[in-house]
Amino acid sequence: MGTPALLLAWAAAAFAAAGLTLGAGFTAGPDGGRGRQRMPVLALAAGGALAAALAALAAAALAGRGWWFAGEKLLVGLPLQAVGVAAAASGLVLWLRSAAVPLARTLLIGGGSAMLAAAASSWLVGFPPQPVATLVLAAAVVLATGLAWAVLTARGTRPVAGFAGMLALLLVAGVGWSWLSDTAAPRLEAGASHGHGSPAPPTADAVSVTDLRTPAEATGTVRRFDLTAGTHEVELASGETVEAWGFGGTGLAGPELRVQEGDLVEAHLANRDIEDGVTLHWHGYDVPNGEDGVAGVTQDAVAPGEGFTSRFVADQPGTYWYHTHQVSSEGVRRGLYGMFVVEPRGGIPETSDLALPIHRIGGEVVIGTTDGPQRVDAAVGESVRLRVANTEQSPVRVAVAGAPFRVVAVDGRDLAGVATSRAKRSGSAPGPGSTSWRPCPRPGSGSRPGCPRHPSSSSPRQGPPHPTRPAGSTTTPNSTCSRTAPAASPTSARRRCGPNSCSTGCRDSSAAPRRTPTP
Question: Where is the signal peptide (predicted)?
Answer without folding.
Answer: 1-16
